[in-house]
Specification:
By secondary structure, the protein is mainly β. Helices cover about 0% and strands about 55% of the residues. It has no helices and eleven strands. The strands form two sheets. Strands 2, 4, 5, 6, 9, 10 and 11 form a seven-stranded mixed β-sheet that branches. Strands 1-3-8-7 form a four-stranded antiparallel β-sheet, with no helix packed on it. It is globular and about 45 Å long.
């Protein structure tokens, strides 16, 4: 069983920045790992993909996050980070880390991000 632990959430004013981190209990470069992702879920809305980093290092972002959010990884530490800049009220959500495996996907427990005016 893979465990993912997110950290770094909190409250920030609009226009500010936060950096989320996700620590995995296994190597994120394991043969059965394809990618690491960040998702978010706002109240009353469906969970949506924020960003994904594939094993080869290429990345994908949701359109509304391009230019503001950056996903990165530390292979030695088995961590994935999400740097979030120019935050808006619409970025308020619970942010989840996901490990995309060849057989299964795994989720963290989530970390709350609240953006206030």
């Amino acid at each position: 069983q893979v465990q993912l632990v997110e950290s770094g959430g909190g409250s920030v004013q609009a226009g500010g920045s936060l950096r989320l981190s996700c620590a995995a209990s296994k190597s994120i470069m394991s043969i059965d790992v394809m990618a690491m992702s960040w998702y978010r879920q706002a109240p009353g809305k469906q969970r949506e993909l924020v960003a994904r980093i594939w094993k080869l290092g290429n990345t994908n972002y949701a359109d509304s996050m391009k230019g503001r959010f950056t996903i990165s990884r530390d292979i030695a530490k088995n961590t994935v980070a999400l740097q979030m800049n120019s935050l808006t009220l619409e970025d308020t959500a619970v942010y989840y880390c996901q490990l995309v495996g060849t057989q299964n996907n795994y989720w963290g427990q989530g970390t709350q991000v609240t953006v206030s005016s």
